[in-house]
Amino acid sequence: MEGLQTLWASTALANFEWAQLVMMGVGCVLLYLAISKKFEPLLLVPIGFGAVLANIPMAGFTEPGGLLYYVYEIGIGSGVFPLLIFMGVGAMTDFGALIANPKMLLLGAAAQFGIFATLFGAIALNLVPGFEFTLQDASAIAIIGGADGPTAIFLASKLSPDLLGAIAVAAYSYMALVPIIQPPIMKALTNENERQIKMEQLRTVTKKEKVLFPLAVLFLSAAFLPAAAPLVGMFCLGNLMKECGVVDRLSNTAQNELINIVTIFLGLAVGSKLSADKFLTVETLGILALGAVAFSIGTAAGVIMAKIMGKFSSEPINPLLGAAGVSAVPMAARVVNKVGLESNPHNFLLMHAMGPNVAGVLGSAVAAGILLALVG
Question: What is the pTM of this model?
Answer without folding.
Answer: 0.89
